[in-house]
Design brief:
With about 150 residues, the protein is of the alpha+beta class. Helix content is about 25%, strand content about 40%. It is built from 3 helices and 7 strands; from the N terminus they run E-H-H-E-E-E-E-E-E-H. A 7-stranded antiparallel beta sheet has the order 1-7-6-5-4-3-2.
């Protein structure tokens, strides 16, 4: 799936590649924390707490691909699903096209039909992209508040 975000690629990439922002735009994510210092380069780890199909989950992820302003990729090391997620970023006339692909295995641990799980995940991904677009584009539309002078 993909969407066009009306911001330069660097701003979109920086936001998406920081897992600590995930709770702001990923449905069901309650908290995410880096387990390594610095930016999310290849070999760094993060942990996420969230809900998936009505269950609370704790998962650990490893960043497996990182090309600044081009690609951000990670895989799960623990949790109920074996997931590989790839974000690709493209410049589009001063804006950013973000393409997301997710591969998930071991769906049967949820005892849910694979087709039903796929439809739910696609719906959630579509909603996540819409929320990401809204959040990031709102940042450029809303001016920063003017400071209120302090009178003593």
């Amino acid at each position: 799936m993909s969407t066009l975000i009306c911001l330069p690629v660097g701003q979109v990439f920086d936001f998406v590649s920081n897992p600590e922002n995930d709770f702001q735009w990923q449905y069901g994510t309650l908290e995410t924390a880096k387990l390594s210092e610095g930016i999310s380069v290849i070999g760094t780890f993060f942990r996420s707490i969230g809900h998936l199909i009505g269950r609370r989950n704790l998962s650990t992820f490893e960043v497996t691909g990182y090309e600044r302003n081009k690609k951000y990729k990670f895989k799960s090391l623990s949790g109920p699903l074996h997931v590989q997620t790839t974000y690709l970023f493209e410049k589009a006339d001063g804006n950013t096209r973000i393409n997301i692909s997710i591969k998930a295995n071991d769906v049967n641990s949820f005892q849910v039909n694979e087709g039903i799980m796929e439809r739910r995940m696609k719906k959630q991904l579509k909603e996540n992209l819409a929320m990401l677009k809204d959040i990031l584009e709102a940042r450029i539309i809303l001016p920063a508040p003017k400071p209120i002078p302090l009178i003593i």
